[in-house]
Amino acid sequence: MALVEQKHMDDAGYRLSEAQPGDFIALLKPRVMSLVVFTAFVGMAMAPVTPNPFLAMISIAAIAVGAGASGALNMWYDADIDAIMGRTAKRPVPTGRVTPGEALAFGLILSALSVATLGLMANWVAGALLAFTIFFYAVVYTMWLKRSTPQNIVIGGAAGALPPVVGWAAVTGTVSLESVILFLIIFLWTPPHFWALALFKSSDYERAGIPMLPNVAGHAATKKQIFIYAILLAASGVLPVWAGFASLAYGAVAVMLGAGFVWYSWSVFTMPEDDQAMKPAKALFGYSLLYLFILFTALLADRLAASLGLAFGG
Amino acid sequence: MEQEFIKPTEAQLKARRKRSIAIAIALVAFVIVVYIGSLVKLGPSLFDRAM
Questions:
Q1: Residue A40: is its pLDDT beyond 50?
Q2: Which of A26, A206, B11, B44 is the most buried if burial means most Cβ atoms within 10 Å?
Q3: Which of A27, A60, A65, A121 has the most B C-beta neighbours within 10 Å, making it the best mutation to test the interface with B?
């Protein structure tokens, strides 16, 4: 008989778990993880050093697991508000499939393992950066900023922007201007991306008592902020050319993508106050995902083309 | 004192078995990653030691 079956029934709140492995995978926020893997990979690929492919794969996996661990810690802490919002109510903790204690233990164990693996297999600069990223997302954003300030996702966005810096550091052992520029692009992308979502999901956030910008400062102020960030983001998109680690061809793609972002943000800015469908906000949310994916793919393609040019032309 | 124990339901036993298999797979994968990673990182010097 397994130990768990010998637990006395009088224990308060005790129950046998019916959680499936898939529920624990859901705790890792796989969709966020895929974006983290992609941006960390780009950070790694942009570095001027060619890493051992196997160690690079381990590093990417460790960064992905670290990101997943912070997602599990977020779901442990936020189970009360997740249960209120339609978008998050079906997550494993609010539905009771996974207990908060299980989610916490899962998140802490994976955090420790991912940081140790990255530190030992790549270097401790990358390991420390990953630990900082997990801490920033789980403690600074989730436990502190999210429920206390409408600037929550502006400051908290730093956690989501760090993966390319970690990827770069895993290969080079340093943090440099190039990786800081990649950080800046995702950092400036985060507010308009989440505020577009917060506009058409403001009633959800209102019910949960989360002080998102549309609920605190109003829709008009949020639209203005989105537009300002869109201009800053479009400008930051061409910084890789200015810093000399991307070509003019990439710059042309970045300018077009940035112009698209500004245009979609303008549509949101001019959206009538009584617009219930909020199609422009939904369109901007969708475009923002596409924007980041294409921009980073363009950087990757640019680096690949440069490498091939060196190999065959030089 | 007579103690009462929980009798797991069929669904709970099935879920526990799936979780156990998933943990086993994850642990084996982790061991392989650390083993091969150590070989790659340390290289041939790993085996270069006084007998």
A1: yes
A2: A26
A3: A121
